[in-house]
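REQUEST FORM: STRUCTURE PREDICTION
Request ID: SP-0412
Submitted by: Lab K.M.
Chain count: 1
Length (residues): 272
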Amino acid sequence: MTYQAVAFDLDGTLLSSQATILESSKQAIQRIRDKGIKVFFVTGRHHTAVRPYYAEIGLDTPVVCCNGTYLYDFKQDKVLEGNPLSAELASQLINQAQAEGIHTAVYFRDAMTYEQLNPHFTKFKKWVDSCPESVRPDVHQVEKFQKEIDKGTLVWKVLISDPDLEKMQSFVKTLPLDQVSPEWSWVDRIDITAVGNSKGAMLAKLLEREGISPQNVVAFGDNFNDISMLELVGLGVAMGGSEAEVQQRAKKTIGSHDQDSIAQELTTLFNL
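STATUS: Completed
RESULT:
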């Protein structure tokens, strides 16, 4: 098979447990790009939280963000495709989650916001503050999400988080699945976006724009929100240590994201 592109999930996949891109991965990515292979980021992150890595790799391709909710072009600061939550639905989700005592964050058009810090956002902000100012993500506190929604600000997703997994699972059962797509993006976090959004669906649109058949693509992922992408492409690769279902739905499994697994796989696939 002659592959024309490689799609990477970020957290738990291309990023190590220290939230860094391994030097071996960077070198391998540069070598496949030198061969004319396209490289895409397909992530649950907001584009503002992708920017530091995008700049580090020196990419020039659009990014699939928020689990396929939108396709973002950094060069033009332009949303090429998008399916945001309606203001009414976003408000409903926020109110329901907060009534259950579930921590809530909202990803608006240009920023990731929270009303109160929780352990995840406290840790995340430390990383944000460590980023160079020129590429620093916009993550900030707001008094009330509703005030931003009332301004007409676009809502990409509502993120809910709680260490009580039974509470989270029960909450998901109450969601109107004809209107929203909940995706587990970490062991204690669920991304809620408009129905129909998935990494696979938006990657398919991106590949169509690029004139590349999904069968000519390799994708790397590690979590449930990656399954649609792994099944779409010609070669879906799961990271070692990922959930059993993710590995079962992928075509192969490699080593840990903390090892040189991605570099080794790219070296083999592209004869580097």
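NOTES: The CA atoms of residues 55 and 163 lie 33 Å apart.
Reviewed by: T.R.
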